[in-house]
Write a structure and sequence with these properties.
By secondary structure, the chain is an alpha/beta fold. It has three helices and three strands, in the order E-H-E-H-E-H. 44% of the residues lie in helices and 23% in strands.
């Protein structure tokens, strides 16, 4: 049986949080015949921005506070600006 693939960009630097997304995607895919999820993980703003230029994604989950060493740095917002500017 063919499945419709939903391509997700996951921008997350926390391994445990990413595993939660991955597990959830697997469960949703198994529970909905005909739907498959393809996750692409990037762990920082720069990698995510490169991925946005070279790939097509159906959706994105973005950690807004990627740099945990500086809580005032919300580099995830840079990615959101790119998404809105390029893909809206």
């Amino acid at each position: 049986m063919m499945c419709t693939t939903i391509s997700l960009l996951i921008v997350e630097d926390d391994d445990a949080q990413y595993e939660t997304y991955n597990d959830t995607a697997k469960e949703l895919g198994e529970g909905n015949e005909g739907i498959c999820f393809k996750l692409t993980r990037k762990i920082n703003s720069q990698e995510a921005q490169v991925a946005l230029l070279s790939n097509e994604f159906d959706a994105a989950i973005v950690d807004l506070n990627l740099d945990r060493t500086d809580s005032s740095e919300a580099s995830g917002n840079d990615i959101l600006e790119k998404i809105i500017g390029l893909h809206r």
